[in-house]
Amino acid sequence: MYIDKTFSAINDAYCIYLCIFAGDISNYISVMRLLWKYLDKMRCFRKRLTIPFLGILITCLLFVNLYMEDGYVLEEDKRQLRETPIHQLNSERYVHTFKDLSNFSGAINVTYRYLAGSPLPRKRYLTIGLSSVKRKRGNYVLETIKSIFDQSSYEELKEIVVVIHLAEFNLAWCESLVQDITRKFAHHVIAGRLLVIHAPEEYYPVLDGLKRNYNDPEDRVRFRSKQNVDYAFLLNFCSNLSDYYMMLEDDVRCSKNFLTAMKKVVTSREGSYWVTLEFSKLGYIGKLYHSNDLPRLARFLLMFYQEMPCDWLLIHFRGLLAQKDVIRFKPSLFQHMGYYSSYKGAENKLKDDDFEEDSFDIPDNPPASLYTNINVFENYGTTKAYSSVDEYFWGKSPSTGDFFIIVFNKSTKITKIKITTGTDDRQNDILHHGVLEVGEKVIGTKKGKKCSTYITLGEFKNGQVEAQEIEHKITFDIECVRIVVTASQKEWLIIRSISLWTTQPPNQ
């Protein structure tokens, strides 16, 4: 009798298990009712033996169910993975690069080949990175490397490291080019100033069958998508080599002492937020980043590698990091020199008309506060005249006695001052009548600070004024520079640039 009831209990328990295993949620209430009904029956015979047995049996069945379900889900995931379209996932190559994209702060797991040189333990001030592939016509990478080193002084060379990413899958071409590089720049390789690296092809994602955004042909989509990955791997490698990182292309000519000029600009931006500083208006040339932003930028390029070209993606990147406006400096420090594009060898005659071969004469513009009583138009404020960025101050018709004052944070020795008003498209908005003055002994007023005494250095002519060798004419350390309007004018006033040169080195 007990055996019959026990087998009946087992049968009921198995029915309960089948309901659960079926995964039908609507049956769970019925299951619970069946359990309580059964337990009520159990009062009729020896519960001490059967109830524990039933509990253990149901528990075991549930564990078996979970195990089988996990196995089923795992097999289902594998099946779906196998059926995923090829343009989304493709075997192990894709997994190498993208499996850790959820960690946006760390480096990408790529094993690089060192083709020449190796990193030194000491961090430098600047890493200059460029990526190069085999071109159908022309090759400019050797000229670019030569320009970087030739245009740098011995002291500047101590602060830079150049990283060349040969992003070509044709290894024979890579080996041939490495031989040329090591033969011509052996001393720079030995000194740790020049590294040549290669990211193996198996780390690249799918490059065929990608989305054809902007109706680009397939080979164009492949080219620009691969270029995004090339740059991502380059940025990833360079993320811990220096304080700052400069992106160049492999067909660029540099201006003289570009590093010193760039350091002046970086020093002038201390205390202000920036993501990207631009020293050329072309492509992915002359773009400066903080090195600690490189891991995020590398992952950003990987995530959207098939969406658009790299120079478009970098605009979105700085915008997402809350730098709304372009911060570009003139004169440009880098010039595009390649005649044939790396894409199909097409002609590429783009030139940066703001480039100057000798950029060492970039102004210092020491930290200062700016004041004016001229009625400012919209957001064309005073600071825009004092910045080396391509922007300007714009005020409404000034009157006699109106002023524009620069008050330095600390007194300084100035060697040269150059002020330009008006623009090419608004040539009448110049200062027609005015003088340039320098002063000392700063005092505070209700409208800001000013100096109590001034000395005139020159008058504006055709909207410009320039004073040189000021340190030989002025005996005191200058605390203020002032522009004074000497006659009213109907035209508005644009102060395009205020450039100051000091005797202080750029790192002070």
UniProtKB/TrEMBL annotation:
Residue ranges annotated for the MGAT4 conserved region domain, each copy included: 91-355
Pathway: Protein modification; protein glycosylation
Taxonomy, superkingdom: Eukaryota
Domain MGAT4 A/B/C C-terminal, first and last residues per copy: 368-496
Keyword hit for Transmembrane helix: yes
Keywords: Glycosyltransferase, Membrane, Transferase, Transmembrane, Transmembrane helix
Pfam assignment, any one: MGAT4_cons
Molecular-function GO term, any one: acetylglucosaminyltransferase activity
Transmembrane segments annotated in the record for this chain: 14-36, 48-68
BP-aspect Gene Ontology terms: protein N-linked glycosylation
UniProt protein name: Alpha-1,3-mannosyl-glycoprotein 4-beta-N-acetylglucosaminyltransferase C
Protein's organism: Acipenser oxyrinchus oxyrinchus
